[in-house]
Every structure is written in structure tokens, then in C-alpha cells.
Design brief:
heterodimer, A: about 300 residues, alpha+beta, eight-stranded mixed beta sheet, B: about 475 residues, Dihydrolipoamide Transferase, four-stranded antiparallel beta sheet, 12 helices, 18 strands, dihydrolipoamide branched chain acyltransferase activity (chain B), 2-oxoA_DH_lipoyl-BS (chain B), Single_hybrid_motif (chain B), transit peptide (chain B), acyltransferase (chain B)
Chain lengths: ~300, ~475
């Protein structure tokens, strides 16, 4: 069925909207430093014009915990464990909850104009790509913008960032992630923290490779790319070095910003932490309340 | 006035766009109704066009525009402006979050923030007012400019990489940056040994203790390069080290090799090294690895089995027993495989061996090995375990008669003397020897002796000169 909507230049073809007059570019990278890949996303969002070209960026990270813009790292994960085990702890610019990345997790970032912002379309594209290559896979998108496997397991988390003219939507996809590490690091702290930060919603997870052990990041990436480029009249593929200052002027500056303590910890919305302190000599327990603002203790109350 | 207000409200409702996209406020006192002659006649002095874009003067109620996807409300996350603060067009006002998307709201006007309607954490409904802005501008009724001003950064086309990009950037985690700051160091001056060239805590501590980087006698960690696909065959002329390697390996083919492998329990040595490595580092600046111990123990064992430190002469008529134990250590450099040797190991202490080994390694990496360093070896050891692997089949380096390949030290369960399973540090060793000169039994006995020295380092003390 063909529907031509002149104002948006969309064409409906096999249930996927088709940007018949637009081109697309698919970027992949061998860089697995999450700070640089997140910096690349931000760079594209700030600088690039998507009126004629949409972009898809497919990337992976070394073991990392990535929290949303307005989350509390101490609430979402064991911060000390991430430091001692050399797991990267990043804060992204988009909202949403905390996720665990490793080389078995695939990230997709869809860049378009703000008027084309549509997370459901992008996620349906991914599920379509998976079902075309592996028809037995029971994958679907729920109303919370999660991709669900076997009507039960969450295999993807979504977040987005909207600007004045452009936007991006990125999501994870569990292909062959180390689930025990995911549970270990994404363990919401049971400390008594009261805050207005965004909370993560915990779900049971599963890998796509648990369904079929021939599924890996490379063939999933190809499956999704295939369906993505079909929407456009032309496609280009680039292997990009997201660390290249020569090609992406200013990306190192953004990566440095993302590494700053002031960003990772300092951007935590204010919160209070209550705990009991046992003083050995007097054998007494004191309830203590810490008020933390911008990651720094601003007030201590001892009862 | 009453009629004007009713009419104005009706007109305002009709312009449904004003509800969602418009950022104008109706100046409630004065309104033009172009097609209402009576009213027009009455209010000609204060005539102004009502339009769905903006009235650029007076108080403007800046509303939360439609984000898309049927989203009806968004949580106020952060304010970037205060009440009473001046704001300019395209400046960030606030950030809102709706489920999983964050959106930065930018101002459309130059003006002053008069009132903020939502606190952080509150839910703002789409179409309701976020802020009141007292707009600066002329009262001539011109439409507000919707076009981009020259101050707005221009956007570019998506990047199209055409050549092999260079890796850039010195990065470090927040904790490491703090440490560098505390010591007044510039991260650009410190060489990073962490993932992707990142500076880690150890790099900073080494930089503070010693300006020059020191390395162990194990093989250097090579920075992984971005893999590039070869589009067609490439021909390269053999020269330098590679040419020499081709010649010597060809000569090795004449030697009838036999192999002998065994496991050495390095647990005692691991404990010993742990105790004394700090002292060595402090006194000499050299990192103490296992190689100096292994080399000294090899020398002690060679003293008992001198035939392993011998050479066949050119005519294959005589065996020459070499007096000096010049133990060669295979070094993997960017230029190729080199085999410099530490001379007269029988006369050196373990610390002296460590220092010399370090010197040879550094020189190998920087292509500064001399002829003296490379020739004259009588026995060889290849520490392939520093890269990886367990058992190997090393190739003898003529005119020597034996070579050993040391695998990596693995932690494995083993039975001890009492029959209990304990954690043991096991190193696999693979020997290759020239069967024209060496018998299997000799190799086995030599290996057992070396094993005894390494498993019981205190025994080594008895034979040190």
C-alpha cells in the first residue's frame, strides 16, 4: 500500500515509512571507549544537519555502566566496585535509566531532524531486522519502548535527546552480554537514599545468543543495517574513528567533559543519605543524615 | 472592552496552533479585530495584528511546546536561568525529561525572565506556561523573526572519513585526573599504559618516582592498531632482522630437534618475588620479574650439565664446552625477533642480571642493540608466556644446542605433599635440544634440577657464588 504524505515526504512501504527523497549514512567504529563514542553522538547532535541525510551509528563498549542524565550513580550501581574493577562509569546526555555495556552489547543511535523523532519506528525497525534474519525470534516492542524477547525478557533499553533542530535516539541490544556482570554492576544500592533522580526500572534480561548461539554482534548489526537503509533512496557506509580530532573537530573536548568528575558525579540531583554510625568506644549508634548537593556533602546532621 | 475580551478569547481558541506551538501572549488590553469595523474604529490607536507567531514586546508567556510522540507532560529537571535574569534568543532556559527523552528548551526572545512556573521535579503539562519573559523590542508591530540569526552556530554535513584516521587524546578517569592535579602534573607529559592509551594511576606513580619509564624483561605490550583490510597483494623486500631470521632458521633445519616438556611449580618463587621486588625497584629502579631468577637457576643447573652449554664445531668433529653461561633471551621488538644475551650469568647476582636484562630490553625496543649484545650466546630462553601460551616448540638458535620456552604462569589446583589440593602457580616449560649432542635423559635430568631450584629457591642459595 502506497501512501504519499507530501508535507513529510514519507512513503509507506511494507509497513515501514520510507524517506524516499533522503539519503542515509551508517557509521560503525572499532573504538570501544564509551566516552569517545558518547562524545561522538553529542558532536553529531550539536553540529550536524540532518535535513537531507539521516544517520545510524552502531557501536560497542568495553565493560561500562552508563547512567542517564539525571540519575544518581550511587543509587544505580556500586560505584566502588566499578572503580576497583576498572569498569567505566559514564553519564550520558540523554535521559532514561542505567544500562551495562560490554562487547556483547550492541548500541544503535538514530540521528534525525526533530520533526522525525519517533522511537517506536526505530525500535520496530530493529525487531523487523531481527525477524527477517531469524524468523523464529519472538521479539516485540512494548509501550515503554523496550524490546521484549519471548514476551518476558527485556533485551533493549532506550533513551533520547531532543534539541532545537535535531534529535537522537539510542538503544542497547543484549546479544551476548555477560549477564552475571550486568547483575553485579547494575545492582541498585540498597542504601537509604532519598532523591528526585530518575530511577531505573529493573527487568529480567536475556541474550539473543541464548536463543540461537549463531547470533552475534556482527550479524545483528548487518541485519539491522539492511532494514534501515531500505527506507532511503541512497546509503553510504563509513568506518569512523570517533577519536579523530582531525575529522571531528571538538570531539576530544566533549570526551574530556564527559570524563570530568563534575559531570559524572557532580551532575547528580541533590539527595539525602541516612545511615547508622556505630561508635566503638562509647558503644553507641548514631543516626546520621548526609545532604549531598552536586556530588559534594553540603550538610551533615547527627541525631 | 468587555466585548473585546470575549471576542479575543474566541479568536484565541480558534487559533489552535497557539495552544501548542505559539509562544505569544495576547495583550489582553488591546487587540485588533481586523474585520470588526465597530471595534476597529474604537481602538485604532492601539491597533496591533494578532498572529500565531510572536508579539515582540511586553510580557510573553513561553509555553512548553509539543515534544512529539503524543507526550502530554514532562518532568522539570534543571533550570538554567533565574527570575530577574536576562536571557537572549536561543539561550538554554531549562531541561525537561519525558520518560526516556531529555529535551533542552531554548528561548525565542531576548528579554528578562519574570517568573518560573515549575520547580525541579514537578511535571509540566504540554501547552502550559513554563516562564514569563518580559520581551525587549520596538512597539511597531513587526512580526518576530523566525529565521536564524548569525549568532546561531551553523550546522554542517555528516562527516565522511576518507583516510586512515589518527588516534588522539590523552584521557584519564576522574580519580586519576585528581591525583595528577594534586601533584601538579600535566597528563600530556605522562605516557598512558591503560586501555586505549589511557593514563592510569600506576603511570602517575612511576612518573613521580622516576622520570624515565622502566620495563620488565618480558615482552612489551603492543598497542592494538585499527585493523585495515588489504585490498590487494603486497610485496615487501626482506631486509635487516627478517633476512637474518630467514638465514638462521634455515640453518636450524639441519639440527635434529627433540622436545621435552614439564611443569614447574613456581609458588615459592612467586612469594619470594613479592617480598623483595619493592627493594629492587627502590635500589635500582628496575622492575623485578621472574626471568633473573630463572636465568640464575639455569646457570646453576648448567654448571652440573655443561654439555647443554656446548657447541658443535664447524666440521662436526668436536664438541666445544663453553665456560661462560651467556644466556640469550628472546625479545619481540617492532623490528622483529632478537636474541641478545646476558654475558657470564654464572658471575652475576640476581639483581645484576635484572639490571642487564632491562638494559637489553630497552635497547632492543629502541633498536640500539650492539653487535656485542647479540653475538656470543651459549644457551637461550624464550619467555613466550609473557604474551601467552603454555607449551611451545622452540627452534634452536645455531650454534647452540638447546633452547627453552617458558609458558605463562597459571594458577591451577595441585595436590601438595599432604594430599590436599592447593592453589599452585604452574609454569609450563618446553625444551628443544640437538639430538646429535644431547640425549633425552640428560635433558630430563637438567630439567629436573632446574625445577628443583625454582620450586625450592632456598636451595639455589647453596650454589650461588
Amino acid at each position: 500500500m502506497l501512501l504519499r504524505c507530501m508535507s513529510n515526504y514519507y512513503v509507506l512501504l511494507n509497513g515501514i515509512r520510507c524517506f524516499s527523497s533522503k539519503q542515509c549514512i551508517v557509521y560503525t567504529t572499532s573504538v570501544t571507549d564509551p566516552f569517545y563514542n558518547l562524545a561522538f553522538e553529542e558532536w553529531m547532535f550539536r553540529k550536524v544537519d540532518f535535513t537531507k541525510t539521516n544517520c545510524l551509528f552502531i557501536w560497542r563498549s568495553q565493560p561500562s555502566v552508563v547512567i542517564g542524565r539525571h540519575q544518581n550513580p550511587w543509587k544505580e550501581c556500586r560505584v566502588n566496585d566499578t572503580i576497583s574493577d576498572e569498569i567505566n562509569l559514564c553519564r550520558r546526555s540523554s535521559g532514561g535509566g542505567a544500562v551495562y555495556h560490554d562487547l556483547g552489547n550492541l548500541n544503535f543511535t538514530f540521528f534525525n531532524e526533530k520533526s522525525e523523532y519517533n522511537t517506536k519506528r526505530n525500535l520496530k525497525l530493529i525487531t523487523r531486522g531481527l525477524r527477517e534474519t531469524w524468523p523464529f525470534l519472538d521479539v516485540d516492542v512494548n509501550r515503554r519502548d523496550d524490546i521484549i524477547l519471548n514476551k518476558r525478557y527485556k533485551i533493549s533499553g532506550t533513551a533520547a535527546r531532543l534539541g532545537r533542530r535535531s534529535c537522537y535516539h539510542h538503544c542497547t541490544l543484549l546479544v551476548s552480554t555477560n549477564k552475571s556482570n550486568l547483575t553485579k554492576y547494575l545492582h541498585p544500592n540498597k542504601l537509604n537514599l532519598t532523591s528526585i533522580a530518575t530511577d531505573s526500572v529493573r527487568s529480567t534480561v536475556r541474550n539473543l545468543s541464548d536463543e540461537d548461539n549463531t547470533i552475534n554482534c556482527k550479524n545483528v548489526s548487518n541485519a539491522v543495517t539492511q532494514v534501515y537503509v531500505r527506507q532511503f533512496s541512497g546509503a553510504k557506509y563509513y568506518e569512523i574513528d570517533t577519536k579523530s580530532e582531525q575529522l571531528l573537530t571538538g570531539v576530544t573536548e566533549i570526551a574530556k567533559e564527559l570524563l570530568q568528575w563534575e559531570w559524572v558525579y557532580g551532575k547528580t540531583p541533590k539527595f539525602t543519605y541516612e545511615f547508622d554510625y556505630y561508635h566503638e568506644k562509647s558503644e553507641q549508634t548514631f543516626p546520621i543524615t548526609l545532604e549531598v548537593k552536586e556530588g559534594i556533602v553540603s550538610n551533615i546532621t547527627v541525631q | 472592552m468587555h466585548r473585546v475580551n470575549r471576542l479575543s478569547r474566541r479568536l484565541f481558541r480558534l487559533s489552535a496552533v497557539a495552544q501548542t506551538r505559539a509562544t505569544c501572549a495576547v495583550n489582553k488590553d488591546v487587540l485588533l479585530v481586523k474585520h470588526h469595523p465597530k471595534l476597529a474604529a474604537k481602538h485604532t490607536q492601539h491597533v496591533r495584528w494578532l498572529n500565531t507567531t510572536c508579539v515582540r514586546t511586553g510580557l510573553v508567556q513561553f509555553k512548553l511546546a509539543d515534544i512529539g510522540e503524543g507526550i502530554k507532560e514532562a518532568e522539570m529537571l534543571e533550570w538554567f536561568v533565574e527570575e530577574g535574569e536576562k536571557v537572549s534568543q536561543f539561550q538554554d532556559i531549562c531541561e525537561v525529561q519525558s520518560d526516556k527523552s531529555t529535551a533542552k528548551i531554548t528561548s525565542r526572545y531576548d528579554g528578562v525572565i519574570m517568573k518560573r512556573y515549575y520547580d525541579i521535579g514537578e511535571n509540566a503539562q504540554v501547552g502550559t506556561t513554563l516562564v514569563d519573559i518580559e520581551v525587549e523590542g520596538e512597539e511597531d508591530g513587526t512580526e518576530a523573526k523566525q529565521d536564524e540569526t548569525p549568532d546561531v552556530p551553523t550546522t554542517i554535513e555528516p562527516p565522511t572519513p576518507t583516510q586512515t584516521p589518527e588516534t588522539q587524546g590523552v584521557l584519564a578517569t576522574p580519580a586519576v585526573r585528581r591525583l595528577a592535579k594534586e601533584h601538579g602534573l600535566d597528563l600530556n607529559d605522562i605516557k598512558g599504559s591503560g586501555k586505549d592509551g589511557r593514563v592510569v594511576k600506576e603511570d602517575i606513580m612511576e612518573f613521580i618516582d622516576q622520570p624515565e619509564a622502566t620495563m620488565t624483561s618480558s615482552s612489551p605490550t603492543m598497542m592494538p592498531s585499527i585493523p585495515t583490510v588489504m585490498l590487494q597483494d603486497k610485496t615487501e623486500k626482506l631486509k635487516g632482522i627478517r633476512k637474518a631470521m630467514v638465514r638462521s632458521m634455515k640453518a636450524s633445519l639441519d639440527i635434529p630437534h627433540f622436545g621435552y616438556d614439564d611443569e614447574y611449580d613456581m609458588s615459592e618463587l612467586v612469594l619470594l618475588r613479592k617480598k623483595i621486588k619493592k627493594e629492587v625497584k627502590h635500589n635500582t629502579g628496575v622492575k623485578l620479574s621472574y626471568m633473573p631468577f630463572i636465568m640464575k637457576a639455569t646457570s646453576a643447573a648448567l654448571a652440573q650439565y655443561p654439555i647443554l652449554n656446548s657447541q658443535l664445531d664447524g666440521g662436526h668433529e668436536n664438541i666445544i664446552y663453553k665456560a661462560d653461561h651467556n644466556i640469550g633471551v628472546a625479545v619481540d621488538t617492532p623490528h622483529g625477533l632478537l636474541l641478545p644475551s646476558v654475558k657470564s650469568v654464572q658471575n652475576l647476582s640476581i639483581i645484576e642480571i635484572a639490571v642487564e636484562l632491562n638494559r637489553l630490553h630497552e635497547a632492543g625496543l629502541n633498536n640500539k642493540l650492539t653487535q656485542q649484545d647479540v653475538v656470543g650466546g651459549t644457551f637461550s630462553l624464550s619467555n613466550i608466556g609473557s604474551i601467552g601460551g603454555t607449551y611451545a616448540r622452540p627452534v634452536i638458535f645455531p650454534p647452540q644446542v638447546a633452547i627453552g620456552a617458558l609458558g605463562k604462569i597459571q594458577i591451577l589446583p595441585r595436590y601438595n605433599y599432604d594430599g590436599d589440593i592447593t592453589k599452585s602457580h604452574i609454569m609450563c616449560v618446553s625444551w628443544s635440544a640437538d639430538h646429535r649432542v644431547i640425549e633425552g635423559a640428560t635433558m630430563a635430568r637438567f630439567s629436573n634440577l632446574l625445577k628443583d631450584y625454582l620450586e625450592n629457591p632456598s636451595k639455589l642459595l647453596l650454589y650461588l657464588k
